Amino acid sequence: MTTAPTPYPIGTPGTPWGDAERVEWLSRQARQRSYEAEVLTVVERLSARFDVEEYGQLTYGADHYPLMALRSRDWREDLPVVLITGGVHGYETSGVHGALQFLDGRAAEYAGRVNLLVAPCVSPWAYERIHRWNADAVDPNRSFRADGQAEESSALMRLVAPIRDRALLHIDLHETTDTDESEFRPALAARDGKSFEPGYIPDGFYVVADTENPQPGFQQAIIEAVEPVTHIAPADEKGEIFGSPVVARGVIQYPLTQWGLCASVTNAPFKTTTEVYPDSPEVTPEQCNAAQVAAVCAAIDYALAQG
């Protein structure tokens, strides 16, 4: 695995960043891909089959991004709601394209059975820069709370509020990458004036359940569905993945609400966060997208079977 650079090139070790450090960090973030070309064009094409809405606008300097969601065209008040989110961390590519691929190729199977609400790219500024944070050096996936500092997160919370108590399922599509260890965790430590403690990146797919409502059968159904597509991350020598105990094969737990994570935005009985590993030499981008689709389908199938 990649070794993190030390010390981080911005700031003074042990001292939290101020405005000058944040400005320097922002100056280093260059656009590397196009949200309009890679995401909005797909959303436009899908608008022939789904209702599309703009649920917010992001503005960072001269950059403006419409935040887009897609809904089932045959939305019915008597059907359960399935929420799918991707791109909360913009650099986690298969979360975005897996959500869009599900809509394009598999969503029709659930017509008349569930209402789908899909926000495929929650953080478009970060998507373009292949980054974890937004332009304010804030992690949207720690900001799903009333006092959250990320507009990306606040906008999604406003979108979801009407279905918060109606949702059957929320699946939040993520990736764990080698750059978590080489860039993003060192940057976090530097930003907060803390010491960086090197770790390791789990080699394979895993899911994150809610500590308060873990639903072990649901989580395992996803693991079993994804395994034919990509390998499952093993526990380390401590029996952990990313410092959290492995409670079942490929499953760890986080306190979703306490940490302000995206998967806490509804009161759905079934919640999970997927974590695809795209840096494995054993997988391709197509397999990563397919793993996300397999996870979504397995999650919906399991949740429907329980109802």
From TrEMBL:
Keywords: Hydrolase, Metal-binding, Zinc
Cofactor list: Zn(2+)
PROSITE patterns referenced in this protein's UniProt entry, alphabetically: PEPTIDASE_M14
Keyword Translocase among UniProt keywords: no
The Peptidase M14 domain, residue ranges: 31-307
Domain of life: Bacteria
Family: Belongs to the peptidase M14 family.
Protein name: M14 family metallocarboxypeptidase
Organism in which the protein naturally occurs: Marinobacter qingdaonensis
